[in-house]
Amino acid sequence: MVPAGRWARVPHVPPARRGTLIAVAIAVAVAAVPQDPASAAVRLARARLTPRAGDAVTVTAKVTGNRAALPVPCRLRVTGRAGGTGAPRSARRLDPSGRVTWSWRIPARTAPGPRRVRVRCGGAGTASGTLVVGPAAFLPRVVSRELVQRPHTGVPGEHGYAYLLRVVNPRRDFDLVDVSIGVDLVGTSGNGVAARSLLIERLPAGGTLLAGEQVTVVGDEPPVTLRVRVGRADGRHPPSPAATVRAVRVVRSADAAELYVRGEIANPAFSVTRPGDLTIALRDAQGRLVDVGASLTSDPVVAGGALTFDEGFFGSGYALVDHAEATVDAGR
Predict the structure, then answer these.
(1) What per-residue confidence (pLDDT) applies to 219?
(2) Do residues 183 and 293 both lie within one domain?
């Protein structure tokens, strides 16, 4: 306090510093004004995501409006009855543009189904979306392919051929279902002369199946090679026991004009199974392909039981056949 009748002594401020003091005062005043968190909002970049199990997924949210009032980090939650997805639980801060991102890879064994995605960013509130996880998908491998002219051609002007693929499931923890295969028989000109499509209902975990059939080619250009396309197939975990073929043998008629391949389809499971296509490859003594037969196994096989098969091939051209191999589609 200044005594009555005296002047107060005011400190001298150099001109060069006056602007600085004014600027500091203005900055403090602005910072002191309370900000309204309600003026900010959080939104998801994509409200619905549809990855497969085993895929990488990214959830991105953006806070718009008054981000200065939101020093609180954002948090992600992914929930659902189908179980977890491996989503990160750590909080993330907004980048300078107001975005926040979480990226992770969904485990391959994650159960398919919908999940709810929620991102909460402090006073900006919560944004919700949906994450629908599909089954894991894997690529089967074709480890061998064979093409042969069949022993007899049938109708004049039509040429009979047979092709055979050996298809492997590289996963030992998943059955592969609905394996789609496209096959082109390619002629000497490089053009396709015939096209076929195959569907394996179930390729067992770690298993190998034969896939092929007889094809009639009309025209003068013979096929000389195969062009094969295999699509990614849905994985099913855990794998189920699959039907197998056993006791395969070749039986000839007395005049050698007829040849039969006989064997059994065994079901090792504790429940009834309905196998798919039975594929048979006939080979000579050197292991070369002679012909291919494919037939649908329509009858169910009881738990722990077996189903016999007897497939016939007719014509003198089968005199070269020495042995046969066979596999059966595991079916549903």
Answers:
(1) 83
(2) yes
